[in-house]
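PROTEIN DATA CARD
Card holder: Origin recognition complex subunit 5
Chain length: 433
Origin: Ciconia maguari
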Amino acid sequence: MPNLEHPAYPSATLLHLESLVPCRESQVSMLLSIFGERQQFSFPSIFIYGHTSSGKTYVMQTLLNTLQLPHVFVNCVEYFTSRLLLEEILIQLQSCSSETKQTSHVPCDTFNDFVRLFKQAVASRELQDQTLYIVLDRAEQLREMEANILPAFLRLQELTDRNVTVVLLSEIVWELFRPNTGCFEPFTLYFPDYSIGHLQKILSQNHPPEYSVDFYAAYINILLGVFYMVCRDLKELQHLAALNFSKYCEPVVRGEASERDTRKLWKNIEPHLKKAMQTVYLREISSSQWERLQCDDREPGQLKGLSAHTHVELPYYSKFLLIAAYLASYNPVRTDKRFFLKHHGKIRKTNFMKKHEKTSNHLLGPKPFPLDRLLAILYSIVDNRVAPTANIFSQISSLVTLQLLSMVDHNDQLGGPRYKCTVSLDFIRAIAR
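Structure generated from the sequence above:
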């Protein structure tokens, strides 16, 4: 692991900074070399991009706060218009200057007004003697504002003739930002995703003091083995690690296993991790509610918890549509007459129980079905008569939007749309109740 080195900052400060940004030492070293010393002019604009939860915002905030560099940090989602954005920058600039104690609201309608007011705000001696950094988080929102906002921020150092650097943080690449008319090209820096080794190292740093480091590292290894393929978000993994650690420790607390007995610990935590897998990113209940549900032993043998699938609220006919879609996906076409017609005649069982049909259809997955079959099953399972109105078709589209149904696209089909049911049997049982 390379150590951070810079002649302008004490080694103790850089060592502390290095401990705060694990697995991002190369990016921080690059930023330090671009920033230079406090009084030196830095690059006019820097564009930092990477996927969600790759450490862009955290690294910039930690770097500027640890080195105590004057900066303005604005989230473009919160200040979604140019006027709100420019005024917020000026308000934070007033608080940075020790000579200007008041933080009065100054109207700023155009970027020309912003340049004039910006020069007045940085007139203090402290801000003139060192580089000022303006960090715009979620900078992709700038593309929704006036056409001159983004090019003007990229040339803010030239327009104001002040020592200022604009840092843009975004999840998309610079090629999607560049205007058709051209603009000043910023210095681009990429933050790659955390690897599984990086996540293991970062998550293991938060171990509780009452347990050993190796014990918590083994727990993180189990957690990543379950969730890494479906979740790379560091914040979500930290939430999951804190939420399920108490359940992992239960055998050790009860004295049934030692910290090295990983087999018993894994058997105890496995069903709870599988349940948490269904609710990744949803945050449908709070941490305290989850803990109360896991501690409630009124229903032994059944894993307790909430799932978005079993608590979703749907319109009346959407529930029947979903049940009909599930029946159409998992039942063969030739069984429709037997299951959904009252007077279907005699059907010999030997015709249905062929060798290749003894395998459960749930193991084979859902099969596509046409729209007319879905509606036919719907009419047979609903007690009252249902007219094929636009309301029914709009509810089918809503189920596709909610990803409870998926549309199967085949360019060579002329007979209409085909669908698949994407929900589980537990979901359908909950809806059918």
